Amino acid sequence: MIFKLVGDGRPYPDHGLTNREWAQIPPRQVRLDSLITTKAMLDLHSLLAADSTFYGDLFPHVVQWQGELYLEDGLHRALRAALHQRSILHARVLDLPN
Length: 98
Hints:
Elements: E1 5-6, H1 19-23, E2 27-31, E3 35-37, H2 44-48, E4 61-65, E5 68-73, H3 75-83, E6 88-95
Parallel strand pairs: 1-3, 3-5, 4-6
Antiparallel strand pairs: 2-6, 4-5
C-alpha cells in the first residue's frame, strides 16, 4: 500500500492559506504510508509530465488534522516518489488545531 488511505475530499475545515503563505512553511519529511489522499482520481498526463511542478510549489502540501496527515496538493509528486521506490517525501505540513 502506497498511502494510508485513499480519500475523496477534504474532511478538515478550510484553512484559507494562499500559495505565498504555504511557501512560508518549511518542508519536512513525511512517510508516504502515513498520508491520506484528498483526491481519488489521477490524471496520467500530469503524472508523466516533465514540467509538472514548473508553475507550482516544489513541495506537496499536507494538512495535519485530528492526528491524521492529509495530502491536499501533490498527489502526482507523491506517486512519482513511490514509483522511484522512495517511502519518504519532503512536504510542507500545516498543523490545523482540532
